[in-house]
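To: structure subgroup
Subject: Chain for Friday's discussion

All,

I'm putting the inputs and outputs inline so they're searchable in the archive.
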Amino acid sequence: MIERMKEEYGFKQASLESKHQLNTEKGIKQICYWEDEACLKWHMEWRDNCSVAPYVMMNRMLRTVEGAAYMEEDNQFISLHDEVPTGQREDQDEKRWGEILGLMIQAGRKDQSMISLPKELSSDYPILEQATREQRLFFRTLFQEANHRLTMAKKIVKSDEMTVPKMDSFTELTGSFRGHMLVVQGSVKKPEYGYQSFKAFLKSWYERKDEASLHALLNELDKQATLTANERKAIMATVLIPDELDTLLRGSAASNGQAFSELIDHLKREWDKTQSFASALAKWLDAKKVTT
């Protein structure tokens, strides 16, 4: 495969550092493997649309000598990219991060879909039969609060459904600055409809930084994308969806009292984090007068 890469990309020297890294005379190149050619082509267009030189750039596919964006080898597709350090997310610049998030929102508008909000949750889960009376009372109260959040989400969008964009996952979004240019690492995942991972990115930003930084980030995003009222409402509704309960609903809690105690502590922490984040986001949305 190395000889093929040298021929295709015109490298004079090349050796594998790892499965995903190629050492060349032009520096370390990232190797991405794709089983689905349609997914690869989607990411090619996505990364082109989410780049504005010389300020923000996604790690786009390097071109071969013949101008191709990828090569096929052993029943899979392979693309090469300039390496983006991904050990940590460099997020000191709300302007550049807000700009690329705005570009992603804009690109997502090209393909939108209607999705249903979750139905009312029931606390009648077999796994809870193993909990103590006090623990079951906690879960009953938690489910009541979760359903209240779902009701609020549906009230915000005035429906049981909402329109959402198709975007790359934000969950593992990382980037680093090269001078004044922010270079962002894209994923190799299939694109998804909705704001779930976008919400996770904003929540993580808020937890690492503070409310002022979150608002500055959103202001820069809004300058780039000019969020519509429906988009703002859909984002807020997504934040209110009680996905903290996913661990419990998957039945992954262990069957002893200590495990339930640990789960309750975890749920309390995550619930409080979401409430704090939702409050900070609501303040920004309220300034845009679209929360109702």
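Points worth raising on Friday:
Residues 11 and 24 are 7 Å apart (CA to CA).
The radius of gyration is 22 Å.

D.
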